[in-house]
Amino acid sequence: MGEVGRGQVVDDLVPIRLDITVDGVRYVDAFSWGFEGDDRVTPEAFAKLLVRDENLSDAFGPRIALAIKQQLHDFVPFDFDRAQELVSGAGGRLGAAITNHAGAAKKGRGDPDTLHDAGASDTQLDQLALPRQENVQVVSIDLRMGRIILRDQFEWDILNHENCPESFATQLCADLGLPSEYVSNMACGLREQLYSLRFSPDGLRHSTYARDLDTTGVLRSLADTANWQPTVECLSKEDVERVERREIREARLNRRNRGRSDFDASPRFLAAGLGGTDSIAARMAGLRRPTPGDSDPDEPSSSRRSRKRRH
């Protein structure tokens, strides 16, 4: 997380995913990169160090740097405070009234009648009494590293800045006894999904705080239990080879479809206007985007492990 202005919380960690093949050697990696930072570590400098540390061919360097730049260029930081206002329906005269009401309420002089006059509904007035809005979405994990596949799904409040993918991944891997290299890959996958959900056309259109709760019982059915728990599967050597061939085909197809090179085309970077000009995502996307020529992203902020495969 970062801060753009005083008290303004922004998610500015960029999920970077590499899937590059040079002369029959495939390099796969995933990590997080700070969107805003100084120029101590550029994509070119990072790629050079990575090539040296992993004993890769020098031909990997420019392609790694280009893949990082492309993903940084497509990224838009997520402003949690702005999202709270948009989900609450704050805008125009009502938005100004809400802001004034919040300041007066801190001094014990808040007047709900002022908000009624500005057009606030009873539901919006009820929401103002809450500490924040929430938007709970289902997030899933389908992660393979080597012969091990981890699958899970759970609910995640995408409007709560205190929900940290890196902390969640660290705890889940510790609970399941998985090696540390799973943490950065899992956190990267979570950030990709959260990015897609937050900037989808309908991802932030409504708050889920007041939704009806299921009161049929506290115990899940057997079918639900199987779907809402982590599972770890160990593949055979033949299964691994088959899965890797499928992954390579999908990566090539995605690159051709997107006209990009060397980075995985997951549905996280929404190039077509961030869900339309009238979406909440589009109204949040007024922050500066770096160009592929920029060279000032900060050093990656999460631990990183890589995989190399020869085909």
- The SSE order reads EEEEHHEHHHHEEHHHEHHE
Poorly predicted sequence stretches spanning 5 or more consecutive residues? 3-7, 90-99, 101-110, 260-279, 286-306
Biggest beta sheet attributes: 3 strands, antiparallel
Measure the end-to-end span: 39 Å
Percent of sequence in beta strands: 15-25%
Task: Please report the number of helical segments.
Answer: 11
Helix content: 25-40%
Strand order of the largest sheet: 1-2-5
Rg of Cα set: 22 Å
- Mean of pLDDT: 70
How many strands?
9
Structural class: alpha+beta
Shape: globular
Family: Belongs to the SNF5 family.
Protein name: SWI/SNF-related matrix-associated actin-dependent regulator of chromatin subfamily B member 1-A
Keywords: Nucleus, Transcription, Transcription regulation
Organism: Porphyridium purpureum
Gist?
Residues 281-311 are annotated as: Disordered. The chain is of the alpha+beta class and 311 residues long. The protein has eleven helices and nine strands.
Structural commentary:
Its main location: nucleus. The protein has 311 residues and is an alpha+beta fold. Among the domains are: 89-128, no CATH class; 136-239, no CATH class. It is built from 11 helices and 9 strands. Strand 6 and strand 7 (148-157) form a beta hairpin. The longest helix is centred in the C-terminal third of the chain and has 22 residues, at 237-258. It is globular. Mean pLDDT is 70; it is low at 3-7, 90-99, 101-110, 260-279 and 286-306.
